[in-house]
Amino acid sequence: IDEWTLPGARFPLEMARDADVGSNSLLTYQLSSNPSFTLAVRESPGGKKKPELVLERALDREKQTSFQLVLTAVDNGDPVKSGTVQVRINVTDANDNAPVFSKSVYEARVRENVPAGSLVLRVRATDADAGANGQVSYSFGNVPDSIQAFFSVDGDSGEIRTAGPLDFEGKSKYSFSIEARDGGGLTAHCEVRIEISDENDNAPEITLLSVSSPVPEDAPSGTVVALVNVIDPDSGENGQVWYELSGDEHFSLKVQASPGGDQRPELVLTKALDREEVAFHELVLRAMDGGEPARTGTAQIRVTVLDANDNAPVFSSDEYSVRVPEDVPVGSVLVTVMATDPDEGMNGLVKY
């Protein structure tokens, strides 16, 4: 009997036979007690009584798949004789149950650098129906193509795996719908939420926003020579940056905090320059993050020193001595003096 059969439906049963005649062969029927079924007897035009099984209330195969009843035929003789037969009723399935997910929301966290094909989580839905009506397949709900570029779902197992490279800096959270469908076309949906964990896959990027070069050699200590911007798109310790400046003792790195909390490194002059000693300075700035392993970004900074007139001319000798005859002609060269100035350009041009 199909589980969707309406109460009141009748099902003919086999008639009993009695070899006696007369009142000894008159039969009545009895059915073992069961709230779902009763017995009705229909009399045919020839006077024969035919037993019928009557459904009294709706069936539910998922609660009870079968019934065992006993039909008894009793004659009208003396002594009374009877015969019995077992009636087994199998309830056949109807697709009256939709799939049911074990959770309404599935959550998982996955590292951003896992290879494609890695298992993220598994959704599971059950269907109380039997056969094809209870077989469940899985698929994406109404999701954009961008989701399917990063994740895939196995139609049989419900496993959700990565389909492409994930990038925490590009997107750190995904939410989409998974559909479960049984063989009869009934569906259910659940929500999947996936968070991407940051990995230290980005090195700090150093940008020189402004470099004052050349720097006058008479610039005072504390002069800002360059403004530096460092970006590390990673989060947490992976994005925290420490700095190291090497190459010259005349400069240091001063880290200022902006109103927004960002770091603003400044290259500052800390020791007087002397162009006549060193005309340019080569510096190396390193930015290291706090990841494991740490990643480092580097920048080369060349600072040229601009000349200042900080040197007076110097004669080649403090005193020039020459002996001249008294009859030396007017206009004769008596002696040549020479002075040099280590400054550059016009500052080093000497006039006498």
From TrEMBL:
UniProt topology in membrane: Single-pass type I membrane protein
Domain of life: Eukaryota
GO annotation (BP), single: homophilic cell adhesion via plasma membrane adhesion molecules
Organism from which the protein derives: Bucco capensis
Localization terms from the record: Cell membrane
Name the UniProt record assigns to this protein: PCDGE protein
Gene name linked to the record: Pcdhgb2_2
Pfam families per UniProt: Cadherin
GO molecular function per UniProt: calcium ion binding
